[in-house]
Design brief:
Helix content is 32%, strand content 23%. Helix 1 runs parallel beside helix 12 and helix 3 packs across helix 12. It folds into 2 domains: 244 residues, FAD/NAD(P)-binding domain, CATH 3.50.50.60; 149 residues, no CATH class. Strands 1, 2, 6, 7, 8, 9 and 19 form a 7-stranded mixed β-sheet that branches. Strands 16-15-12-13-14-11-17 form a 7-stranded antiparallel β-sheet. A 3-stranded antiparallel β-sheet has the order 3-5-4. The protein starts with a strand and ends with a helix. By secondary structure, the chain is of the alpha+beta class. The structure holds flavin-adenine dinucleotide (FAD).
């Protein structure tokens, strides 16, 4: 009989195990994971560098902010950095507040966590998927053969199933009487039918992205957009997708990109006008070359049905105004996303109303806890999702060790 069994050994599960064992060394703790090794997803995070937290972490960044408030206030970015320091891992913070390991390698993050588990004597079972949990008297039976006084379910969501999180944790929770808010892929590339942007493939711009559901602007995001043959990638597009994910199938969704953030619309019109006056013989396809990459300039000219090889002098004042307006408000209708296979996180999951925000313990099944992405909590790119996995893992580990 284990005192605590942790189901799913990712960022949240490993943190919960270390926290519980450090609190009470007497406890017999086990982790079980369906993959051949623990914490595989950590290796893929931050493009292999693991953006493990962010100095701008606060509860308002998260969906279900009331629920996350206690965990984030008590186990915020400072506590996470201290936790990693205690494991022997040091960090740095980039200009945008994102925290990375000093080694710039995600493998270091996983290594220090693994070494600590081994040092603490935490039992690890790998290559074993949990498909059944039941409660008998005051203990749980897992896969019909393990017994544990408490279980912490940290199976993640459905995003990036090749790294182990295939949504099976939601089924375990349903069988124990919990409600699941419909899981959707989030922080994933957006798809679009827009033909003009196909010619922008491979180009990156730093712009301001306004996110629209029908005619309503729901948020503005500043950051990088990468144009692709299927639509939009880059951090700002993935963050936009997270905001749109609940509407993509039912509403008209679009993003409006400001392709010239340095200028107001009037300034831009003046500057384009000056380019034309100074170079009346310039081909139209080149008049925006000083503002945006050439292919984007060509596409914008095409949008206004101006011939690329016509001379600049054909462009009148009214067309210049329309051009500057288009550059400041380049709208792209989006049709969907690249799905769970490519998603970084899941939006949706275990209904947070059924869990105690201070302990992550279920209000339905005593002794059952959840932490990390399996809960209906999500945040933009920037280290906030791992931060949540660590914070909630600490809450659960601390309480389960009582
Ligand atoms: C490519 C990529 C890059 C990312 N980059 C960042 C980043 O830089 N910063 C950031 O903050 N976030 C990032 N994220 C998101 C972040 O990785 C997740 O939010 C975080 O890993 C969630 O941790 P978790 O422990 O809750 O779940 P997971 O990390 O998904 O771990 C769940 C574990 O449970 C196991 N499991 C699942 N079902 C079962 C079962 N039935 N039985 C047994 N075991 C099971 C899985 O094998 C897995 O090991 C990224 C995600 C991806 C996919």
């Amino acid at each position: 009989m284990f005192d605590i069994m942790i189901i799913g050994a990712g960022a949240a599960g490993i943190t919960a195990a270390i926290t519980a064992k450090r609190k009470n060394d007497e406890l017999n703790i086990a982790m079980i994971d369906s993959m051949p090794r623990i914490g595989k997803k950590i290796l893929a995070t931050g493009n292999g560098r693991c953006n493990l937290s962010n100095i701008n972490t606060n509860e308002s960044i998260y969906r279900n902010s009331d629920f996350v408030s206690y965990a984030i206030r008590n186990y915020g970015h400072k506590e996470i950095v201290s936790f990693f320091n205690s494991l022997g891992l040091y960090t740095y913070t980039d200009d945008e507040g994102r925290i990375y390991p000093l080694s710039n390698t995600a493998a270091s993050v996983l290594d220090v966590m693994r070494f600590e588990c081994i040092k603490l004597g935490i039992t690890i079972f790998t290559d074993e998927k949990v498909s059944d949990i039941s409660k008998k008297d005051d203990y749980f039976i897992i896969n019909g053969r393990y017994r544990a006084k408490k279980v912490i379910i940290t199976c993640g969501g459905s995003a990036s199933p090749s790294q182990g999180s295939d949504g099976s944790g939601f089924e375990l929770l349903k069988h124990t009487g919990h409600s699941i808010i419909k899981p959707l892929p989030a922080l994933v590339q957006l798809t679009s039918d827009n033909k003009i942007i196909k010619s922008f493939k491979g180009l990156r711009i730093k712009g301001k992205v306004s996110v629209y559901v029908n005619d309503e602007e729901i948020q503005q995001i500043e950051g990088e957009v990468l144009f692709t043959d299927y639509g939009l990638s880059g951090i700002a597009s993935m963050d936009a997708q997270r905001l749109l994910c609940r509407y993509l199938n039912s509403e008209k969704c679009s993003v409006v990109i400001d392709l010239a953030t340095s200028f107001s619309e009037d300034d831009l019109a003046e500057k384009i006008s000056a380019v034309i006056q100074n170079n009346p013989d310039l081909k139209c396809e080149n008049i925006l070359s000083g503002f945006v990459p050439k292919k984007i300039g060509q596409g914008l000219i095409k949008c206004l049905y101006i011939k690329n090889n016509a001379k600049a002098a054909v462009i009148d004042e009214n067309t210049i105004r329309r051009l500057s307006h288009l550059m400041k408000n380049f709208r792209i209708y989006v049709t969907g996303s690249k799905g769970f296979e490519n998603a970084q996180i899941t939006c949706g999951g275990a209904d947070v109303n059924e869990f105690d925000p201070e302990t992550m313990q279920s209000k339905i099944t005593e002794g059952l806890y959840c932490a990390g992405e399996i809960l209906d909590v999500d945040a933009p790119c920037g280290g906030f999702n791992l931060q949540w996995a660590f914070s909630s893992g600490m809450c659960a580990g601390n309480d389960a060790a009582e």
